[in-house]
Design brief:
The longest helix has 28 residues. The chain has three helices and two strands, in the order αααββ. The protein is mainly α and 105 residues long. It has a two-stranded antiparallel sheet.
């Protein structure tokens, strides 16, 4: 992903066509498009059932990731890395987790 191409005037037409075809292939099959619900144009060509399946996969993955973050923050040891009283630590290094515990970073 993120291919960078240099087409200079000295390039031959066949090379230019090859690079453009490579870019178009990536654009249509690899790159996620925000206007297409972060799916590829190729996903949309596969039909509604495929689109719904991909959207459900994403929703499930995001739900799992959110739960993992929530569990992490709920179970973090608020004294981890603290040598001093948390109320004496500079506020830019201190956050509060979901249990309203002060955590030093």
């Amino acid at each position: 992903m993120g291919l960078i191409f240099c087409l200079c005037p000295a390039s031959n037409p066949q090379e230019a066509r090859r690079l453009i075809a490579r870019y178009v292939e990536e654009y249509n099959t690899q790159r996620l498009h925000s206007a297409l619900n972060y799916l590829t144009p190729a996903d949309y060509l596969k039909g509604d059932a495929h689109i719904q399946s991909r959207l459900q996969e994403r929703k499930s993955a995001l739900t799992v990731a959110a739960q993992r973050r929530r569990t992490y923050w709920e179970n973090i040891d608020p004294t981890r890395g603290m040598d001093a009283d948390p109320d004496q630590v500079a506020p830019s290094y201190l956050v509060t987790n979901f249990k309203q515990q002060k955590v030093l970073f």
